[in-house]
Write a structure and sequence with these properties.
Elements lengths: L5 E10 L10 E7 L5 E8 L4 E7 L7 E6 L6 E6 L2 E9 L7 E3 L2 H31 L1 H4 L2 H28 L5 H10 L5 H9 L9 H13 L11 E3 L5 E3 L7 E7 L2 H18 L6 E7 L4 H10 L7 E5 L7 H5 L7 E5 L5 E3 L4 H12 L6 H4 L1
Parallel strand pairs: 1-7, 11-12, 12-13
Antiparallel strand pairs: 1-4, 2-3, 2-5, 5-6, 7-8, 9-10, 11-14, 14-15
Helix pairs in contact: 1-3, 4-6, 5-6, 7-10
C-alpha cells in the first residue's frame, strides 16, 4: 500500500552546466498553490547528472502538477506527482523546459497532448521546405510566398487546435485535462464552447481542484446579475480557510477593499448593515475581502477600522492585484460590494452602500425582490 502512495522521480541531466557556467548540484521539488505561492516539498542532490525524489502522497491527495526547480530563476520542469515512477530526461540544464517526462498515466497523457502542437509545427516546417525546394528561396521571400506560408500556418493551427480538443475530450478523466482546458484552451474558446468543454469532464474528476478551478473560470466568464457566482477560497482572519460555497443558504455580502483610508467611510456604513443583520446570523454573512499583499498590515487595518466583530468575516490571500478572488469577480478597483443570494446566484455585482442597506431591509421584511431576476 505504501508503494501505491509514493511517487518516485528519477531524473537524468546530460549537460549539467548552468547559464552561469557552474554545475547544477541541487534540485527542488516545488508546489505552487492557487494564490501563486511556491513552497519546496523536497530537495535532491545531483550526482553525475542524476537525482532522485521519493515523495509520499497524503491519503486522498489529488494528482497535481509540481515543478523541479534549481535551473535558474523562472526555469523548471513541470510534472504531475502521482503514485508510480516518473522518469525525467533533461538534455541540458540550461533548457529544462525541453525535458521529457514519462512513466505515469497523467505525465504520459500530458506529454501526448504537448506532442500534438510539436507535430503541427513539424508539418509546417515540412511544407515550407517543400515550397522552398520547388520554388526557391527568393520566391519564398516574395509577397506570394509569404502569403502561402501564412495560409499553411493558419491551416495547421486549425488542425492542431481540433486535434488538441479531441484529445482532451477523449482523455476527459485525466487530471491534466481540466488544467489544460483552463490554461491553454479556455482563452481561445467562446463562452458557449468553454461551457460545453467544461461539461465534458468526467464525473470522477468533479471533486478535483483543477475541475473546480475550470468551472469557476467558466462561471466568471459569464458572470452577470442572476447567474451563479464563482466560488472563491477565503483565508480568514482566524487562520481557517473557507470557501464562498460554504455559506450557501445565507445571503452573502461580499465587500472587496484594499486601502484602509479609502475604505474607512464604506466600512463605517457597512457597520450599519452589520447592525441590521446582527440578529439574523443564520440568514446573512458579511464577508470583507482585502486585496492587500501585506497580511500583517491587513490584520492591523481590520483592528483599527473597528470591524473585527463577531459574525463579520475577513479574508485576505496576500496575492494583491493577482488575487484569484479579484480575478473571478473582475475587480479592477475598490471598494466594491457584491450581493449573493442563498442559492449562490449574484443579485448585484456593483452595489452602492445606500442601495445595499435598502435591499437588506427589503429582504428582512420578506420582500425577496431579486427572485424574478435570478430565475
Amino acid at each position: 500500500m505504501s508503494a501505491q502512495e509514493t511517487c518516485v522521480i528519477n531524473g537524468h541531466i546530460g549537460d549539467s552546466q548552468l547559464a552561469d557556467g557552474k554545475k547544477i548540484k541541487v534540485v527542488q521539488l516545488t508546489r505552487t498553490n492557487e494564490f501563486g505561492q511556491t513552497s519546496v516539498v523536497a530537495t535532491a542532490k545531483v550526482k553525475k547528472g542524476t537525482y532522485n525524489f521519493k515523495y509520499t502522497l497524503a491519503p486522498g491527495e489529488p494528482v497535481l502538477q509540481y515543478a523541479i526547480t534549481g535551473f535558474g530563476e523562472g526555469k523548471g520542469i513541470a510534472l504531475f506527482v502521482e503514485p508510480g515512477e516518473v522518469a525525467v530526461s533533461t538534455s541540458a540544464a540550461i533548457q529544462p523546459e525541453q525535458s521529457i517526462v514519462t512513466g505515469t498515466p497523467t505525465n504520459d497523457d500530458y506529454a501526448a497532448y504537448q506532442a500534438i502542437a510539436n507535430e503541427g509545427l513539424a508539418r509546417i516546417a515540412q511544407q515550407v521546405a517543400e515550397l522552398e525546394k520547388h520554388h526557391g528561396t527568393a520566391w519564398l521571400e516574395s509577397a506570394e510566398g509569404k502569403q502561402e506560408v501564412k495560409r499553411i500556418q493558419a491551416q495547421e493551427a486549425i488542425k492542431t487546435e481540433a486535434e488538441e480538443l479531441r484529445f482532451l475530450i477523449d482523455h476527459n478523466a485525466s487530471p491534466m485535462t481540466p488544467m489544460v482546458i483552463e490554461q491553454c484552451q479556455f482563452p481561445k474558446l467562446s463562452e458557449a464552447y468553454g461551457e460545453q468543454m467544461t461539461k465534458t469532464i468526467a464525473v470522477s474528476l468533479q471533486d478535483h481542484p483543477y475541475y473546480h478551478s475550470l468551472r469557476n473560470t467558466m462561471l466568471a466568464s459569464t458572470l452577470k446579475a442572476g447567474s451563479e457566482a464563482p466560488d472563491i477560497t477565503l483565508p480568514l482572519l482566524d487562520g481557517v480557510t473557507k470557501h464562498l460555497a460554504d455559506y450557501r443558504g445565507k445571503h452573502v455580502i461580499l465587500n472587496f477593499w484594499n486601502d484602509a483610508t479609502q475604505a474607512a467611510e464604506m466600512m463605517a456604513e457597512l457597520q450599519n448593515v452589520y447592525e441590521l443583520t446582527r440578529e439574523q446570523r443564520d440568514g446573512f454573512v458579511i464577508l470583507s475581502i482585502s486585496l492587500g499583499s501585506d497580511i500583517v498590515a491587513w490584520k492591523e487595518a481590520v483592528k483599527n477600522l473597528g470591524i473585527d466583530r463577531e459574525g463579520w468575516l475577513h479574508a485576505c490571500d496576500g496575492a494583491g492585484a493577482n488575487s484569484p478572488a479579484a480575478k473571478r469577480y473582475g475587480i479592477e478597483k475598490t471598494p466594491r460590494i457584491i450581493l449573493v443570494e442563498p442559492e449562490g446566484h449574484a443579485v448585484s455585482l456593483d452595489m452602492e452602500i445606500d442601495e445595499l442597506a435598502l435591499r437588506i431591509e427589503q429582504i428582512l421584511s420578506g420582500d425577496l425582490y431579486y427572485l424574478d431576476e435570478v430565475k
